Amino acid sequence: MEGKGDTLDTKSGKLIEEKNINEIINLKEDSDASSNNSDSKVVSIDADKKNESKNIESGFPTGFDQKELEEETPLKIIYNKNRYDINFPLNQTVMQLKHHLQNIIGVPRAMQKVMIKGLAKDDRTLKELGVTKGAKIMVVGSKLDDVLAVSTPSQLDFSDEKTSTTTKEPFCKQKIHRKVLDTGVPDDAMPGIKNIKEGLPQFPISGMLNKHGGKVRFTFKLELDQLWIGTKERTDKIPMHSIKNVVSEAIEEHEEYHIMALQLGPTEASRYWVYWVPAQYVDAIKDAILGTWPL
Q: Which residue ranges have biased composition labelled Basic and acidic residues (predicted)?
């Protein structure tokens, strides 16, 4: 009996040992499977990071799948009174749009100004600027041949200021400007607002004065890339790309207005001075005229 009991115990022991071995094998298999899943997740995360990196390098914003990035949206481009129907992704930048348009409208991208609620910056996407399906986008700019052929208007009254260009004295204290400023703010001057930036108004900026105290108004014809400078005697239509520079300074004790000079020729001697420019429009005037053009 003892021998039989020993045999049963031995068998029972073997069964227990085999059970333990099987449990160990199962645990190892579970551990290997878990490790494989973890490796798979790491590979997946690395792949996502690589895709995100590719999106950044290509200039596309992250957070959009490839299909959405490549989806083209119908847009209407208005240039020089002509309409061009194009399809273009909203998640591409203004610079990419310029590159797309240069062969369509014949204007090099460096000479284009895209107007979307004012002058659009090159690094903004159309989506960020609020462009939607079927939107109209105005583009201004001149073809290279037109730029090379342009000549500076000769009828405008330039200010010869050879001695004043080297001085650091504020514009409003220089003798050449005091004779205009001392007459005071014109009765019909548009209200000026300091420390505020506004876009160009839909109407002419009027109530300003030239160096002789005559009335001056600015009318921006963005579709023609022109600034119309109107006086009592005439209206000069100036191609905006021909204006070399725009400078301005606030008028002391009347900071809501600026003195502004448009450089219409190759030197500062060809500056056209305007007084009592409403301060809130100064930056918009500079952006519309200069845009991304090199000075």
A: 46-55
